Structure formats: C-alpha cells, structure tokens
Amino acid sequence: MSMIAAKIKANQIDCGIGAGMENMSIFPMMEYFIPKKENLSKRTYDEKETLDCLLGTGEVAENCAEEFSYTREQQDRFGMESHVKAEKAQNARYFVNEIVPMKATTKDFKTGEKKTLVVD
Length: 120
Known about the structure:
Elements: H1 2-9, H2 29-33, H3 48-52, H4 57-68, H5 72-91, E1 102-107, E2 114-119
Antiparallel strand pairs: 1-2
C-alpha cells in the first residue's frame, strides 16, 4: 500500500488498489519495482541507509531474523497473528471510511463473459 500512496503522491497515478500477496520464490519483485541503477541519482549509492531502501522484502526479513535472532516459528506466528488481526478489522469494518469503492470489470477468459463488480 505504501507503493500506491507514493505513486499517488508523485502524481504517477490517480488511484490504486492496495491489495495482493507476495510469493518471493516465483515473482522477482526487484526487477519490476526498483528503478534501474542508471535511472537513480549517484547519491543513492553513497549512503548505506539509502541503499537499505532498495532491499527486497525477503532480504529485509532475513536481515531482521539474523540481527534480532528471530526464529522461523516466531516469524510464522507473527505473520499468522497479523492475518487474524486484519480479518477481524475487515469484519468489524474499522477502515470502511478510508476505502473508496471502485467499479471494476472482470472477464472470464474461458467464456468471454464480462462482469462489473465493486471492489471495496
């Protein structure tokens, strides 16, 4: 969602859908979302803190696990608790006033049938 917010702030898009999932083993996110080195200011590479912003989610997780001695079980439990909290918040409609319903059209590629639905 921070990527959507940043793109709106930079006037790159008018609105976006903050949703999705990660599957780091089959989707090379760095290739798609991190600008190519030649498109970044040389100063980007002068500071370690700036370079850390170019790390992928998987690298950040590995670094945190090592630095703070988190076990895989602790990370999995934290992830599960996060999903449970998100589901409770969604069911309780805590953020309903922050979500703008948008109409979207989907197409069934097998039948060619199009449907309009509201994404909220």
